[in-house]
From TrEMBL:
Name of the protein described by the UniProt record: Regulator of SigK
Keywords: Cell membrane, Membrane, Transcription, Transcription regulation, Transmembrane, Transmembrane helix
Principal place of residence: membrane
Span of domain Anti-sigma K factor RskA C-terminal: 105-243
Biased segments, Low complexity type: 78-91
Amino acid sequence: MSTAELHTLTGAYALHALPEDERLAFERHLGACEACTQEVRELSATAARLGLAVSVVAPPAMRERVLREITTVRQEAPSHGRSGRSGAPAGRAGRWSTYALAACVAAAAAFGGVAVWQNQVARNAQEEAAQARQQNEQLARVLAAPDARTSSGALEGGARAAVVVSPSVNRAVFLASDMDRPPGGKVYQLWFNDDGSMRSAGLMDPSATDDTVLLDGPVDGASGMGITVEPAGGSKQPTTPPVALMDFPKA
């Protein structure tokens, strides 16, 4: 197995999904690859925290089905200094993104102004990628922090939720599973509870019943959080009674 292929096994290793021979080969690789070691550490911590929001036992066939599915999708190699590695295989999503971009460039060429359009697309893509990367790094820092504490509980309709707080990072992560989707044109908005005063902490994905959200802003002195149903785009202050209130875990 090549070094480039070993770089793609961090996710499967973190989930204990590698066969014995690949596991041994990857563990030898970890001894010489700090980037993969760091990524395995973050993925393992994230998987452990996400498991706190799960309230049902997975069906017996789940593991087999997941392992069968992941054989058809190549994981992207970690970005820690390896984005320019020659010979690294491109993922399927990367190839399709390249084809889609090429098609858009060809269409724009028919109308002129390709250089300006392409530069704008590149800038937008870079900005979005940087924001997503920063968000994921912050989320991983909270979940993997040595002082991270977790509080979990049940929500209406059988949903489960957990909140992870790290005083050292001064951020919190909310995890939910099996939540009912909000009514049309509405969204779940998260709030910090500052001694009864609610401070906006971001929005959940209205199309997802399972979600992991890095709360927007520092925890500071907040003692807990709440969830309300708000108009799409959110509100400056809660406009409906909370559908859930959770205390932050004690240090």
